[in-house]
């Protein structure tokens, strides 16, 4: 049978169409004179700001389908503006704080809109939006006591979380709950208990992480699971070598990332997959150990499996911070945290992590990804899109810019080292603000929130 004569599948046709559109743009770019190339690679800051600010003021009726996602829209827009190094006018900030306060449920958590059901996803979006606004009024508007009660209510015996009352249980719920608790300084042993067991059960044979056990590895869930395991100090329980292998092969021919095996490129995965690489750079010692075991033919099982120890933080807990097992203390010392013989405050991990030098080189093609974002995802009139042929939207604008920031800082060993011009595709004026890769907020806004909540 001549396989070449077989009728192409819908997926194959879609892939060929996307490749054709992308390579047409790249061929055009290659044929242009130098000054025209520079213009195509320039980040259209003013147009992006106009597009974002307009959306924060008023949305047209077509956005009614996102009625239950209004905190997300606030976060996407505000975070994109912060990445551009800009601020919104005080009146708009006040409007955001007031609106999100009306989304805050009396019993804890944030809903998608006033009067709706509180939900972990919109809670994460609202908290990140308020951190991005910054300032005492914004940060103090978060009712941490009630929010903690909401998180406890969502916690399941399996260790996972539900997204809302009677809602779905998945890795996304684990991340949004743990991320919010960490940044608000309310993360404790009770919230962490058995979370790592659930996430480990979601890592697939491919190496990526699925939304739930038995499902397919996915870029968004991989980021959520990986980030959660870092925040609860159990990252050594994952097969990091397998995770690296899976995510490395998600950078496609078009230079952007796909979210799953054999799927189309999508600019939002510039962060969901690119952010995984930013995290991997800071767990290099654990990853190097795994890779060394593989190269030497040794057993790549993690430390806790080798020694028979448990990394359940609830074991041997003392007080609200808890005392880690020897395995977890070792892991934390690798991440540049407290002394390996000292008790660990779980809420310090996010701060310690970003202070840890990124000693590994970028593990993906950073300039190629920047090229895809700037040439194929950027809409010159403002905003960014999924891929050529798609419309711009606030979601892809947010995560494309987050991914662009990850790329630009991927060769900087620490926060005091600005990127070299060679690390920034296009003019150096394209440089965005640095993000905290665990939370996806601008790092300076994270520091302000960390200091504010640490004193409460």
From TrEMBL:
GO biological process per UniProt: negative regulation of abscisic acid-activated signaling pathway; prenylation
Region (Disordered): 297-325
Start-end of Polar residues biased regions: 299-313
GO MF, any single term: zinc ion binding
UniProt function note: Catalyzes the transfer of a farnesyl moiety from farnesyl diphosphate to a cysteine at the fourth position from the C-terminus of several proteins. The beta subunit is responsible for peptide-binding.
Name of the protein in question: Protein farnesyltransferase subunit beta
Gene symbol of the encoding locus: LOC108992807
EC code(s) of this entry: 2.5.1.58
Cofactor binding, per record: Binds 1 zinc ion per subunit.
Family: Belongs to the protein prenyltransferase subunit beta family.
Organism lineage: Eukaryota, Viridiplantae, Streptophyta, Embryophyta, Tracheophyta
Keywords (A to Z) from UniProt: Metal-binding, Prenyltransferase, Repeat, Transferase, Zinc
Catalytic activity: L-cysteinyl-[protein] + (2E,6E)-farnesyl diphosphate = S-(2E,6E)-farnesyl-L-cysteinyl-[protein] + diphosphate
């Amino acid at each position: 049978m001549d396989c070449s004569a077989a009728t192409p599948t819908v997926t194959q046709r879609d892939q060929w169409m996307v490749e054709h559109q992308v390579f047409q743009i790249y061929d055009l770019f290659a044929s242009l004179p130098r000054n025209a190339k520079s213009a195509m690679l320039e980040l259209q800051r003013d147009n992006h700001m106009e597009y974002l600010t307009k959306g924060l003021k008023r949305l047209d009726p077509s956005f009614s389908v996102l009625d239950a996602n209004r905190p997300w829209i606030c976060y996407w827009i505000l975070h994109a503006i912060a990445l551009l190094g800009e601020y919104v006018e005080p009146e708009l900030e006040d409007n955001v704080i007031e609106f999100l306060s009306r989304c805050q449920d009396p019993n804890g958590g944030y809903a998608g809109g006033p009067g709706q059901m509180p939900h972990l996803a919109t809670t994460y979006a609202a908290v990140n939006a308020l951190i991005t606004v910054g300032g005492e009024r914004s940060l103090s508007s978060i009712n941490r006591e009630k929010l903690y009660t909401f998180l406890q209510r969502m916690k399941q015996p399996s260790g996972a979380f539900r997204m809302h009352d009677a809602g779905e249980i998945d890795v996304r719920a684990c991340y949004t709950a743990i991320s919010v608790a960490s940044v608000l300084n309310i993360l404790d042993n009770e919230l962490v208990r058995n979370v790592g067991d659930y996430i480990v059960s979601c890592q697939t044979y491919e190496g990526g992480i699925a939304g739930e056990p038995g499902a397919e590895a996915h870029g968004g869930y991989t980021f959520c699971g990986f980030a959660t395991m870092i925040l609860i100090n159990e990252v050594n329980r994952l097969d990091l070598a397998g995770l690296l292998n899976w995510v490395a092969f998600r950078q496609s021919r078009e230079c952007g990332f796909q979210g799953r095996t054999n799927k189309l490129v999508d600019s939002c995965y510039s962060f969901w997959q690119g952010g995984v690489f930013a995290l991997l750079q800071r767990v290099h010692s654990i990853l190097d150990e795994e890779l060394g075991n593989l190269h030497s033919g040794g057993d790549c099982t993690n430390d806790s499996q080798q020694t028979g120890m448990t990394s359940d933080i609830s074991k041997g807990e003392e007080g609200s911070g808890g005392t880690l097992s020897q395995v977890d203390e070792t892991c934390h010392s690798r991440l540049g945290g407290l002394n390996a013989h000292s008790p660990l405050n779980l809420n310090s991990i996010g701060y310690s992590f970003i202070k840890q030098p990124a000693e590994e080189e970028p593990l993906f093609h950073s300039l190629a990804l920047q090229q895809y974002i700037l040439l194929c995802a950027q809409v010159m009139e403002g905003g960014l899109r999924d891929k050529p042929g798609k419309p711009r939207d606030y979601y892809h604008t947010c995560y494309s810019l987050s991914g662009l920031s990850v790329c630009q800082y991927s060769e900087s060993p620490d926060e005091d080292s600005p990127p070299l011009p060679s690390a920034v595709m296009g003019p150096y004026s394209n440089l965005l603000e640095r993000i905290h890769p665990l939370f996806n907020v601008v790092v300076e806004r994270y520091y302000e929130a960390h200091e504010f909540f640490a004193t409460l």
